[in-house]
């Protein structure tokens, strides 16, 4: 089975490693616009050989794991070049734009929109690992538009990886993910920025940084080339979420100014309910 991976970072590389283990007689082809990543993926045996546009037609499955703006530009030419039985799987963090763009494409039934809820703050081929998706959610969008035999194959592969599948409307996906992922990254980026601007002594930052600070700013190490396009594509939902977040920050600031620590305690106590919610998820 010929499997193409476009984008050889953490996400694409981990799909490749999973395919190598779980899909019998798979030959892995990889493509990355970063020449160093291309070379590393070959050296680390994440893929067997380079994927060129002339190879697209011969792929059985292609994973599109590149920044969402690049995916939006590439997806139609890619669908135009594949054969009539190739499955193209997109794994980007926004779904409404790419689904809308392809709704009238003659090969729409060979496309599957997904979003694996998995990742780390690290990037590049060296960050990839085989079990990244084990126990993680895999969101499927408009899977009813994917050809049944292709969908069945993909679903079985995802289940073999240990993923938990969930169907979601593309617009609802983008709304929900703005809260649980995109806002988290913005908060981390801006916290890191604030501390670095305020605290000029870098050594003092790291000497005093406890586990709370480290875990909160962990996401600030994420790739700007990946996240800026995500923020752009999901702008409307993110702006709405940011308005709510800023309102809560202003309220907390006002309580501090008023020295109303009884209400501060109450707000924190109410928010502690998230422990039960997260425990139910995990």
How would you explain this protein's 3D organization?
With 282 residues, the protein is an alpha/beta fold. It has 2 domains: 2-168, NAD(P)-binding Rossmann-like Domain (Rossmann fold, 3-Layer(aba) Sandwich); 172-281, 6-phosphogluconate dehydrogenase C-terminal like domain (6-phosphogluconate dehydrogenase C-terminal fold, Orthogonal Bundle). It has 12 helices and 8 strands. It has helices at residues 10-22, 35-43, 68-81, 96-102, 148-160, 170-198, 202-208, 211-216, 224-233, 235-257, 261-271, 274-281; strands at 2-6, 27-31, 49-50, 61-64, 87-90, 111-116, 137-141, 164-167. Strands 3-2-1-4-5-6-7-8 form an 8-stranded mixed β-sheet, sandwiched between helices. Helix 3 links the parallel strand 4 and strand 5. Helix 3 packs parallel to helix 4. It is globular. The mean pLDDT is 91.
Compute the separation of the termini in Å. Answer: 34 Å
What sequence of helices (H) and strands (E) makes up the elements? EHEHEEHEHEEHEHHHHHHH
Overall average residue pLDDT: 91
CATH class of the largest domain: Alpha Beta
What's the helix count? 12
State the helicity in percent bands.
40-55%
Overall outline: globular
By DSSP, the count of extended strands is: 8
Radius of gyration: 21 Å
Query: Pairing-aware structural class of the strands and helices?
Result: alpha/beta
Detail the poorly predicted runs.
none
What is the architecture of the largest domain at the second tier of CATH? 3-Layer(aba) Sandwich
* CATH T-level fold name of the largest domain: Rossmann fold
Largest sheet: 8 strands, mixed
The proportion of residues in beta strands is: 5-15%
Specify the CATH homologous superfamily of the largest domain. NAD(P)-binding Rossmann-like Domain
How do the strands of the widest beta sheet line up side by side? Answer: 3-2-1-4-5-6-7-8
């Amino acid at each position: 089975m010929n499997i193409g991976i476009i984008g050889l970072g953490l996400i694409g590389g981990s799909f490749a490693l999973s395919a190598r283990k779980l899909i019998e007689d798979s030959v892995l082809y990889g493509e990355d616009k970063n020449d160093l990543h291309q070379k590393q993926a070959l050296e680390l045996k994440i893929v067997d050989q380079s994927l060129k546009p002339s190879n697209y037609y011969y792929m059985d499955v292609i994973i599109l794991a590149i920044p969402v703006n690049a995916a939006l530009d590439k997806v139609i030419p890619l669908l135009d070049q594949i054969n009539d039985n190739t499955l193209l799987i997109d794994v980007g963090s926004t779904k409404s734009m790419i689904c809308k763009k392809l709704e009238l494409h003659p090969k729409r039934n060979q496309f599957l929109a997904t979003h694996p809820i998995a990742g780390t703050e690290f990037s590049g081929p060296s960050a990839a690992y085989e079990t990244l998706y084990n126990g993680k959610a895999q969101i499927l969008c408009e899977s009813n538009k994917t050809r049944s035999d292709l969908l069945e194959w993909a679903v079985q592969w995802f289940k073999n990886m240990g993923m938990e599948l969930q169907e979601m409307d593309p617009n609802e996906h983008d709304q929900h993910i703005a809260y649980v992922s995109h806002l988290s990254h913005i908060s981390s980026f801006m916290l890191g920025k604030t501390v670095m601007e305020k605290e000029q002594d870098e050594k003092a930052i790291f000497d005093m940084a406890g586990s709370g600070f480290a875990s909160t700013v962990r996401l600030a190490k994420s790739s700007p080339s990946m996240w800026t396009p995500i923020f752009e594509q999901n702008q409307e939902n993110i702006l709405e979420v940011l308005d709510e977040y800023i309102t809560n920050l202003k309220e907390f600031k006002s309580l501090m100014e008023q020295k109303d620590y009884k209400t501060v305690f109450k707000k924190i106590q109410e928010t502690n309910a998230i422990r039960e919610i997260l425990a139910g998820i995990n």
